[in-house]
Amino acid sequence: MALFKLADFNPNYREEAFDGEEIKGLDVYAGKTDEKIGNIHDVLVDESGCFRYLVIDTGFWIFGKKILLPVGRCHVDTKAQRICAIGLSNKHQAENLPEYDDSMTVDYDYEERVRNVYRVPSVEASAQVEASGVEAVPTRAAISRPVSSQPTTAAYNRNTYTYEQEPVMYQMNEQEHQQLRLYEERLVASKRRQQTGEIAVGKRVETQTAQVSVPVEKERIIIQRKTPENTGIYVAPGEVDFHKTEVARMDVYEETANINKQPFVREEVDIKKEVERDTVDSTETIRREELEVDIKGNPAVNRSRKRPNKKR
Asked: Bigger pLDDT: 149 or 168?
């Protein structure tokens, strides 16, 4: 059962649990007397936020020693703004308690040392007497008789012990703890955005061999020699003029293939994201504190629920 300092468990404890007021620093008195034994140095809560111990700085009462007081062993006097340590009425009892240090880890063995001091029958008897305002005088029967509300050592161990087994130490009620709050667990859902991957879209150049056919034309000269039909016919002198330099000319052309490369748009790619929505269901077991009021006789009890006034 892990324990946490109040501010570490809930930094907003002043607004949420005490209507903006501070519980730390309140004076602590021995029983319902006017003997001051110190002040509240801190509060220890369990994993569900339930108050389990008040850390009391005793100052010079027992040389500045810090001790733990189970919440069931205190009475909150809201009018006088003080805490009454029920069952811790003298320095001898405080000296028997193990010293608490802010840097230490409160484990089961340490808690057992604390509980064993408060389990002494005389302490239980003195707590009952203090409630009536009469000075505690433990009798031989009270010292020898075990407290019925305390579990025996064989009834539990470090693996089975729960705070509910000792309500006289840890139970909180409206009569004794007007300013202490009851807690309940609730499921609080939140979302955390995290990266699950990355997509990179780029281009690469691939090469291939392409073939194209281009029809071309080429001119050529054909020279044909033939015998004219009037071969052997006499030609009169002067009708024919022989010229040595007479030449017939004709231009010859041919086509050649001119092939080059030009870029063209082949396709376009659009890149976008779509959000898919889903619902995640979770089932957990939560705890809730309820008040237990032990009524004896026929007292008039008003069970109405009153909402606290928020201070602005």
From this structure: 168
